[in-house]
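Subject: sequence -> structure tokens, single chain

Hey, anyone have a minute? Need the predicted structure for the following. Not urgent.
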Amino acid sequence: MSELVFITGASSGIGQALALRYYRDGARLALVARRTAEVQRWAAEQKLDAARFQVYGADVADLEAMGRIGRECIAAQGLPDVVIANAGISIGMDTAHFDDLEVMRRTFATNNVGLAATFHPFVAAMNERRSGTLVGVASVAAIRGLPGHGAYCASKAGVVAYCESLRGECRPFGVRVVTLLPGYIDTPLTRGNRYSMPFLMGVDEFADQAVRSIRAQVSYRVIPWQMGVLAKILRLLPNWLYDRALGSRPRKKRASE
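Reply:
Had a minute. Here:
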């Protein structure tokens, strides 16, 4: 039987591009999204074979729902070969505004707890089978904090650390953990940005490189590589120089803007 790939955040952007890339390679799909009607509409537009995919409706921050659809997936389609925790949100915040603390809570609930909830239903069974790949989608924003983007940067740094921990836990069982750090990818999530986005990459090109990285079972990869080089340079800058360089950079829109 062809491989089964479980993908969250499948209603747009990176999630859809990864789904289509895997589908064209012959995989079966388990697609998770809050907006299931949009996934079904997209699948019809792409003329996907209904026998090769199933759509599950859930918010990844809903722990009970994620456990339920994980069990439903195993019962209906089998234990996935690849699980991609892609769902995430990105909203600007200013700690001086009380309402933005709720933005931070929501961001961590989705980007961090939701990622762990995505993996949870499958880890024990994959360990028992002694095969499988868990993919956490972080961001190059994990490497250094950006003014006005504290919730997102902190959450994605958390994804990197969590996946590193999980990698060590799963490795003795033959289960691999891959951490992907997209740079600026042309998706609905980035199109509202009001600042320059170096090395902006098309979503289909990103999906091609991401799938190759997952199949190679690399532990950590920044895509595109040029963004990884830039991020490492920024990491090496002394704080005073980094703060001066980024201090006047336009900030991510806050929820109230």
